Amino acid sequence: MASSLDHEEQDQLEEIKHFWSKYGSLLTWVLIALLAAYSAWNGWQYWQNRQALQASVLFQSVDQAVASSDEALVGRALADMQDKFSSATYAAHASLLASKFWSDHGKPELSKKALVWVVDHASDSGLVSIARLRLASLALDGKQTQEAKEWLKKEFPKAFEPLANDRLGDALMLEHNAQEAKDKYLAAWKGMTERTQYRQIVEVKLAALGLDVHAQESQP
Fold first, then answer.
1. What is the pLDDT of residue 13?
2. Cα torsion at 134, 139, 145, 150 (round to 10°)?
3. Which of 5, 81, 84, 196 sits a CA distance of 20 to 30 A from 220?
């Protein structure tokens, strides 16, 4: 019986050796590929977490430079962040923060440069929309109505449409096109909820153009 069992085991061993000689190399490479993929995923997660941590540290540098009104440091910290973490959301936030700083300090060109960077690099549509609206405002400050309309003409996410219409109304008013401006202001007003404080500012603009929105609403 033992001899018979040994013979069966020998046959099984030969079958295993034959199978491995035929498919062993393929299975080894499949295993290596799976392990490599797993290792890469873990590495990617680690890299992502590490990148986010480093980006947050650099963002703090920009924030502190802004708080201390150190113009040179704001420029260096922002450039460093944009260079090293261009795909990070922190970089877009830092650029928006620096843009406001430059605008408040009478440096519209630097402010514009930071905003254009957000438009070109940010993956978040909300951040891109904010940058485009601010770019339009900068253009309007310089009476550059065509440039402002260029920043506003592309489609915005629904939440930003009322603000885009309001800015377009401002551009049209600067071009002395009161009727089209009124239409844009009215579209902006209708797109805002009653709890939106900015809606009252749009109401004032419409009232200056002779339109009482509340009287219009009460009409049958």
1. 55
2. -60
3. 196
